[in-house]
User: Fold this.
Amino acid sequence: MKAARFAYERPKSLRQAVERLGDGGGFVKLLAGGQTLGPMLNLRLVQPDLLIDVTKLSETTGWSEEAGAILIGACVTHAMIEDGKVPDPTGGILPRVAAGIAYRAVRNRGTIGGSLAHADPAADWLSALAALGAEVVLVGRSAERRVPVAELSTGVFSTVIAEDEVLRAVRIPRLSRHARWGYYKFWRKTGDFAEAIGAALHDPEREAFRLVIGATNGAPLVLDGAALGVSGSALPERIDMAAIGRALDAHGFADDDYGKAVHLVAARRAIERARRT
Assistant:
């Protein structure tokens, strides 16, 4: 099957892209990496009137530094992050997560911003960046705003991004040198969608602990140290897994014994890996 007819434009600036989004000329989609949108177009699951290509804009393809953080353009590919072609403020976490996304052919084209905007619950960046305390930079016709990745998704393939906004960049804070991290993804084989994701971050210098459980039936489940009885700069030997179980029940797993069990395992293994790093 081939895509339905649509108009195609490649604006010369981010401002032009935002203006076209706000023109109200039918159903408009943005094209970043196209690794999800392309198949959806061919299957006619999505039939836009206009496709706006933002893959070559200088505002979305580069990176910059600001106090305590790195801003990575939305159209930076997974492969660029995997290969260290953009700075990594996390001490190795970003390349490791990027290297585990699908296959190299997908990573060569897929982008960090496209993945976040698509908001597939099984996607790696949505969970990993929520655990890191990252933010997305959204540009609209009248203003720019920043939204924590932990608050970006509102459900399956649904976000807080407005129809006239473009995801310009991702702001990733620098971790302290003593920060520890664990990431675990349960999948049947390499390249499959994840059935469960666990991401744990412990930054003792900031007295911060965050656990994210992804590949759920909606937005990732984000738990901070207070919810799990973790306080101070030390990571305790035992984490209250019963509290995680109750949080999963409230997140839609009360009647799904298998799903709950798999997500508990992912959470436990992420915490164990954070303890060992």
